[in-house]
């Protein structure tokens, strides 16, 4: 009995050691809420933390990442969508409970019970219209979907159910017909790569991470960065055995998630890092190694990391005019709306489709056929056809001048800034982390 009691106490200790401790502090910083996560190190814990915060549409303006052996501590400065501290107790409780893995509960997925379509292929004007027309013709009701385009490629996750029964599509003949017709649509007349269509009954764990994986597998990163691309540099710090990744670009929602997601899926581990956002510009620095503990070993690998990170940042860039559709859902709605876009020369660069209580709540980012901003006259013509009250223009794009990194205090442009950072930033961000902890 005594041994059994000791074993129970040991098990409790193991649970406590392996369950992240989360502290949420509104007192330390005047402009943001501090979320501190302290835990034993485990694979993917940084991505898990960032994913939880970004899924709540929280903005991470600063962050300090530190891993010491088998232990890690992350500190995130977060605000809500309006730039305010977190005051909603339900949000705070959700963050705290999300890291409590000791209860072994599985978070419910609202998309369970739907059929999942994964599509990749060559992007072209009107492609989305053709996809939704096929699904409407095959009596498939689109419940939710996300569409990304980048570098001439398209990736989409579409959740559907049978219109008549309202259930997942399980008929093997119908599934084969869906796959065949969508594959033909995706191939078009000049597909330079093989289009892919997959039908599954298993809901994707995280839609946006899966979209990154799909575009990565489709090699959308195979493009030489141009003058407007994010600035990404990678150098080795031989003395410490790290590879140092620096990212400098315009800030936007979920930027941190996209970068960490890509590093994680490329099998790199982030040991230390800092995130700093000033105005509309973001600077991110990560000290990484392979999962086996080694740094980047070749020039080809270094270039591939740069290409993949640039692609991960660009995929979600808000190109074009943002249009929000809010109207009663009906059979063929998406097919009609996207056909109207196509007939007016609008190309959908990105889309988020959802339904709630029989209402369609859709967001489209549209450009002209060349990828440039659409004229206001064309937008108004489209709105008149779809419904002025149903289709609203939100957040039209604005031109923001690119920051000049040649004016940085380090001098010598990006390369100079990176070389100076190698000797000081690890100590500096660890000092900042220490001061935050002590002040808390």
UniProtKB/TrEMBL annotation:
CDD domains hit by this protein: ACT_ACR_1 (cd04895), ACT_ACR_2 (cd04925), ACT_ACR_3 (cd04897), ACT_ACR_4 (cd04926)
Please list the residue ranges annotated as the ACT domain: 34-109, 116-200, 322-405
The record ties this protein, via Gene3D superfamilies, to: 3.30.70.260
**Which domain of life does this protein belong to?**
Eukaryota
Q: Does the keyword Repeat apply?
A: yes
Role noted for this protein: Binds amino acids.
Protein name in the entry: ACT domain-containing protein ACR
The protein's organism comes out as Papaver somniferum
